[in-house]
Every structure is written in C-alpha cells, then in structure tokens.
Amino acid sequence: MISTDIGIWVSVILIICVLTFIIKDTPLFRFSEATLVGVTAGVLAAQGLQNVNRLAWIPLITKADYISIIPILLGILMFTRVSKQIAYISRMPVAIMLGAGVGVAVTRTMATEIIQQAGGLFKAMPSSTLDIINQIIFLICTIGVLLFFTYTRAHVGGLGFITRIGRYALMLGLGSIYAGHIYARAAWLLPILQRIVWDWLGITL
Amino acid sequence: MTAERKSLAEKILTINPKIIMIILLILLIIPLAKPLALPLAISKNTKHFYEIIDGFKPGAKVLFNYIPTTATMGDLCPPSVPVIYHLYTKHVKIYFVGVGVADGILTLIDTQVFSTIPPEKFGYKYGEDWCNLGFLAGGDITWATFAKDIRAAVKFDRYGNPIDSLPMMKEINSIKDFDYVIHCGESITILVRQWGDPYKIPLLVISTTAAVPMDVIPFYRTGQIYEYLGGLGAGAEYEKLVNRPGKAIASVDAITLTHIFLIGIIILGNIVYSSTRLRGGKIR
Question: Which site among A35, B93, B180, B252 is 20 to 30 Å from A110 CA-CA?
C-alpha cells in the first residue's frame, strides 16, 4: 500500500527528480540538486552552531572554561573575509588549523603508513606452503611496483622484467579497487530504491 | 550519401550507457520487491569478527565510532545493525561517538539503528549501559585529542548532559580505557594513525566495500586492524550469523544480480573489443 507519510512522498519525488538525469540534464534534476545543496548548507550551519555551543560556549559560561575563548575568537576571525581590507586576518586561523593539523598528522604518518607497512612485508610468518608462495609473490610484486616508479635507468633487461611484473601487479590492484567501486555504487543506490519500493510503494518482504 | 551500417561488434561497443543504467536500475529493484534467496556463504573475516564480539565479556567497554554519510549509508548502516544487536546481547557497555568529518551519529544512528533496535528494548539504560557522546567534527587534531583526553574534546553528550553526569563515564579518561574500538565509516587511515597504533587498542572496522582493498587490507595484513567487515555483503553474512535477517540480507540479492550483469558486460565488451582488434578492425 502506498505510503501516506508526507516526508516519504517528498523524498521519493526528489529521488525521481535525481533519477531523471539518466535521460538527460533536466530542470527537475537541477531543482533537486539545488535543494540538496541548500539543505546541506543549512544542516551544516546548524551543526556548526550546535558544535560551537556544545563544545565552547556552554563550557565557557557554565564552567568558566576560559580556554574556550581562543577557538571562539579564531572562529570569529574567519568572518573577516567578508571585508577586503581586513580579509588577510582570516589567514591566521586557517594557518593555525593547517599547521596544527599537518603537525599532528605527519608525526604519526611515518610510523603508521610507512614503517609499519614496510615491516608488514615480513611480519606475518607464513605457516603453509601456499602462504610461503603467497608471501613470495607479494614481495616480488611490491619490489616490482617500487622499481616501476624509478626513472633513473631505462626499464630494459632484468629491470624491465621486474618492472613489468610491477606494472601487472598495479593493474591487478587497480582492477580490484575498480571492482570495489562498482560494488559500492550499486550499494549507494540501494537506500533510495529501498525508499521507493519498501517505504513508498509499501512492497514489503 | 548512405548511412554506414554498424556491425554487431560496433553496436555492442558503442551502446548508450543510459540503457545499461536503466537495466541496472531494474535489476536492483526486482529483488527488492521479490527476494530471490540466492545462496550466501560466510567469509572467514565475517566469522572471525563475529567470534571476537561473541567473546566479549558482559560489562566490557566498547567505543563505537559511527560516521556513515548519506552517500555511504547503503553500504555501512546495514552491517552496523546486526553488529550493534550482537553487542546488546553480550551486555557490554557501548559508548557511541561520531569523530570525523561525517555526521552519521546525529541522524543516521537514530533512523537506521535505534529505530530498528532501540537500546532500551534490550534492557540498556542510558548513561549506565550506553551513551551517545555526539559528533566531533575534525581531522587528526580531533581524533588525537579525543584519544588522549576525552574530556578535553567532549564536554556534553548528544542530549546536552555533562559527560561527568553519566555514571559509565566515571572510569573513562582516554581511549586506553576502552577494551575495544569498533569503527563504522571511512577515515580508516586516521583511525589507525591516531587511535590504533599509538594506544595499541584492538580496532574492529566496518568499512565500505570500496575501501577494503585500498584502505583496510594493508592495515589488516600488518595487524594494525584486528578484523573488518566489508560493506553490505559482510552485513548480510553477519545477519545470518546472529540469525536476525534484516536490510542487508534483503538487499544483497540485488547487489549480486547487478554484479552478474556487470561482469557479463565487462567480459562481453572485452571479447568483442579484442576480437575486433585481432581481425584488424577499428573501433570508432
């Protein structure tokens, strides 16, 4: 039985508007696109205000947490962008955010994504013949891919052989990523189709 | 001037993509309306994930970082439901939070999880057995701050209660105080970088299918991620393991059918392309 919920009707109408893009770029699609952008901006603004309130303003006024003044002040400085004369001030909070973010990230990146990953090549001790073969293939492929991105010598002879293996390994890796994305796209489409079939048309299992 | 007739090979290789999209839509809709009950095998990873949670002791403290987005909800919300259901049955303490750039903890957890399996239905009391610490926007800094000193990052829960008023927060100061972390969402690299590696805490990850080969497997292989569930398919397997069929099982038929179709057209396209080139023909 078709739903009588106004919210479901609105969402289904917008979904159908989006799906018209399969045929061509229609005004209906553009309407739903603009609606999405507007609603998202509104939700993000509300969330931003809620975050400022919850994380900085309330602690400041209820617990006299004066340290909260600093992020509030930096946030206010971002709005100086509206005036050309003082727009340069907005670079200060951006610089602090970027500097702190990069600092925190980079210190851990080396250990987590380079040293641990390189060590991982030899970490798992193979327990069966198949595992040993697997480990050898993995090692050869890794070396091949790394050598594939060296440009100081021409990829001929022995080097050419191993870089070709690296290229095939890359292609296999990319193929696997591509397959994962195909899967994900179909999975992303499912909730909107479930909304149409289950929630709107009322076809239940 | 007469129009040049296209060969069958050319017709196949130059087919309008819109036709493929419409076929895909139809193939996705049919199993949703009438499930085909295709066979479902349980993968090694899903079984291990299940066994790990099944081994949780009552009262264990589990941090559940829930950050699906509207784009990834189709792949992430269905597997999260049976996992949370399983956690309820083990009577562990669940600390929900949304640290990251997505806001699933504010909206999707209500509409996709609590509407189906409300904690109260399983005897869970807010503040004592479960809590929702809300959404913390940000990248590395937020993750690192939360891990080091939770009170520096969170002052109030999702519903405006000071976190010190929640009895279950008394013994929690940093991420080290949790027994396990379950992460549902993207940002896997930050998760490992800021939570898993520095604090040596076991990470259980519910990731999108697309993220598995690139973001999850490299960390899983090195032991930086303890175990993972890869998207909707793994969710369907998990629903089967906890014997609670839900959205994932109902949706997985649709995914399987579209994949069979896509594999078919990829093989067909490659055969036609290769045979045309072998015959010396050109593809326009």
Answer: B180
- In single-letter form, the type of residue at position B205 comes to V
Q: Cβ-count burial of A133 within 10 angstroms (0-12 exposed, 13-18 middle, 19+ buried)? A: exposed
| Contact predicate B212/B162, CB 8 Å | no
d(CA A101, CA A71): 14
The CA-atom distances, in angstroms, between B40 and each of B104, B203, B256, B263 are 28, 26, 10, 19
3-state DSSP call for residue B206? strand
Contact A54 B141 (CB under 8 A): no
* Distance, CA of B178 to CA of B200 (rounded, Å): 11
Say how far apart CA A90 and CA A96 lie, in whole Å: 10
CA atoms lying within 13 Å on the CB side of residue B163: 26
- How large is the average pLDDT for residues B62-67? 96
Give me the residue label for tokens 């990052």: B153
The number of angstroms, rounded, from the C-alpha of B249 to the middle of its chain's C-alpha atoms is 14
Instruction: Kindly report, residue by residue over A144-190, the tens digit of the pLDDT.
Output: 999 999 888 888 888 999 999 999 999 998 988 888 777 777 777 88
Q: Amino acid identity, residue A41?
A: A
Q: Tell me how far CA of residue B76 lies from CA of A177, B72, B216, in angstroms.
A: 18, 6, 14
Cβ-nearest to B189 among A113, A187, A203: A113
What value does the mean pLDDT of chain A take?
88
Alpha helices in A110-154 (DSSP H): 116-123, 129-148
Cross-sheet strand order for the sheet of B93-100: B130-137, B93-100, B61-67, B180-185, B203-207, B227-230
